[in-house]
């Protein structure tokens, strides 16, 4: 079921710069959607328009069926936004900061909900601490707690793990997964491709204000990924024999390996074209080339992302 619908959305700033160009996008309830793109691609502008922080130049946004302009309060009440930085509240305690955020949305006081939120983010023991005394990772958790204080159905995370160490990043991933299990729809922007590869159900790639692609992660990697079959040879080769010239082969590891690269979606089979691989193995045998081991490697999401951005340039 669609929880956010973006229709023909555009944004042109007073300077004449067009940040968004005819964006159409549906976000499904309960999914984790990752929005990827280089700096200046329009990620933050798109999030800001959906959240009602920036006015669109054209098109519209529906949040759980509510227009985010004509029915702003209802639309915005369903959204929690986690920005990149925590500012202006250095002397407030964690408890007061999160409670205040709940009140901003007109929600009645609920100490039980605030306690549950802080406990779920491992902040309960820090509830009386002033924000200025917290580590960067704890401040990042407070940002999430603030965004969840009014019990939103949708959570936007703008670069949620930027600047935190690897261990804390993985802790944050677990927090996000738990939120999704509790029914919260997650939309995140990230520069860490591994973050999208690890967590996302679907991925959108934006470049120069246009959505280049929106696809389920697994399907994206199946359709656009390439695979490399590496054959470790019993005896090294100085060059590839002419009898194998018709195959897409390269020598690696100082002649001790042959690498065959192929389209992972060829013939609609995620393992590539079985006939072509069988033909290659037969050609190797005919040429008297023997191998002792083989393995395959599929393109990572990062490689696919780079190729998409380059193709769209």
Automatic annotation (TrEMBL):
InterPro entries: AAA+_ATPase, ABC_transporter-like_ATP-bd, ABC_transporter-like_CS, ABC_transporter_ATP-binding, P-loop_NTPase. Residues 4-233 form the ABC transporter domain. PROSITE patterns: ABC_TRANSPORTER_1 (PS00211), ABC_TRANSPORTER_2 (PS50893). This is ABC transporter ATP-binding protein. It holds the Pfam family ABC_tran. One of its GO terms (molecular function) is ATP binding. It comes from the Bacteria. The keyword Glycosyltransferase does not apply. It comes from Halomonas halmophila. CDD domains: ABC_DR_subfamily_A. Keywords: ATP-binding, Nucleotide-binding, Transport.
């Amino acid at each position: 079921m669609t929880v956010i619908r973006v229709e023909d959305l555009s944004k042109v700033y007073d300077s004449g710069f067009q940040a968004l160009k005819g964006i159409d996008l549906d976000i499904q309830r309960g999914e984790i959607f990752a929005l990827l793109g280089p700096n200046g691609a329009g990620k933050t502008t798109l999030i800001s328009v959906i959240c009602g922080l920036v006015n669109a130049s054209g098109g519209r946004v529906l949040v759980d069926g509510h227009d985010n302009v004509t029915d702003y309060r209802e639309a915005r009440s369903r959204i929690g936004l986690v920005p990149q930085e925590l500012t202006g509240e250095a002397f407030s305690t964690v408890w007061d900061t999160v409670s205040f955020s709940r009140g901003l949305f007109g929600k009645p006081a609920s100490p039980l909900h605030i306690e549950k939120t802080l406990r779920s983010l491992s902040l309960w023991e820090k509830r009386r601490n002033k924000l200025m005394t917290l580590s960067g990772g704890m401040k990042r958790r407070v940002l999430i707690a603030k965004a969840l204080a009014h019990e939103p159905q949708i959570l936007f995370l703008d670069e949620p793990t930027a600047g935190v160490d690897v261990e804390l990043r993985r802790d944050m991933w677990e927090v996000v997964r738990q939120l999704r299990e509790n029914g919260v729809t997650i939309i995140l922007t990230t520069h860490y491709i591994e973050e999208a590869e690890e967590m996302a159900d679907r991925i959108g790639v934006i470049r120069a204000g246009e959505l280049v692609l929106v696809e389920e992660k697994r399907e994206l990697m199946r359709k656009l990924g390439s695979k490399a079959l590496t054959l470790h040879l019993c005896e090294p080769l100085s060059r590839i024999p002419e009898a194998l010239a018709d195959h897409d082969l390269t020598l690696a590891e100082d002649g001790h390996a042959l690498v065959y690269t192929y389209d992972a979606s060829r013939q609609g089979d995620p393992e590539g074209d079985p006939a072509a691989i069988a033909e290659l193995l037969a050609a190797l045998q005919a040429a008297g080339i023997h191998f002792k081991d083989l393995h395959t490697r599929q393109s990572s999401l990062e490689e696919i992302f780079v190729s998409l951005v380059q193709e769209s340039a």
